[in-house]
Design goal:
extended, 2 helices, alpha+beta, single chain, 59 residues, NrdD
């Protein structure tokens, strides 16, 4: 079991203190037609469909 009392959390100001040259691009992948693909490889239509997706929580 993990002892959460020893974890350190970033302060909000520390996260915004990064310079642009220190940041890295986050690549988003999603499952399409049974396999995983990066969203950056989608064509215009598929990117639009991805943006229109709605997330749901099954009860």
């Amino acid at each position: 079991m993990t002892d959460l009392s020893q974890q350190q959390y970033l302060q909000p100001q520390a996260a915004s203190a990064l310079k642009d040259e220190d940041r890295t691009r986050c690549e988003v992948w999603t499952r399409v037609m049974g396999y995983h693909r990066p969203v950056s490889a989608f064509n215009v239509g598929k990117r639009g469909e991805f943006a229109d997706r709605k997330f749901f929580k099954e009860q």
